[in-house]
Design goal:
By secondary structure, the protein is mostly helical. It has 4 helices and no strands. The longest helix is centred in the middle third of the chain and has 30 residues.
């Protein structure tokens, strides 16, 4: 994509366009509703950034959740159970 933009700048310079004119062409300035397209592009990019930020917040909050609910016993298996199994195996 960067190569394409550089090629457009080279072609524009060969045609005798200034840098400002080339940038205007790249940012929809030659259309009838240039400001509308710019506004829609900015809104779209903001929505993507907000969505990415919210998804990161949601994922990090899910990682930090407790595994066990409050007032629950953490584990029902105790070391005594393993000692019993070892005796049974022997």
């Amino acid at each position: 994509m960067l190569n394409d933009i550089l090629k457009i700048f080279d072609i524009g310079k060969e045609l005798g366009l200034s840098k400002k004119e080339i940038i205007k062409l790249l940012i929809f300035d030659n259309s009838k509703h240039a400001y509308l397209w710019r506004l829609l592009l900015i809104i779209f990019m903001l929505l993507i950034l907000i969505g990415w930020y919210n998804s990161m917040l949601f994922l990090t909050s899910r990682i930090n959740e407790n595994v066990y609910p409050s007032n629950a016993a953490y584990a029902t298996i105790k070391i005594k159970n393993f000692k019993r199994k070892i005796r049974l195996i022997k």
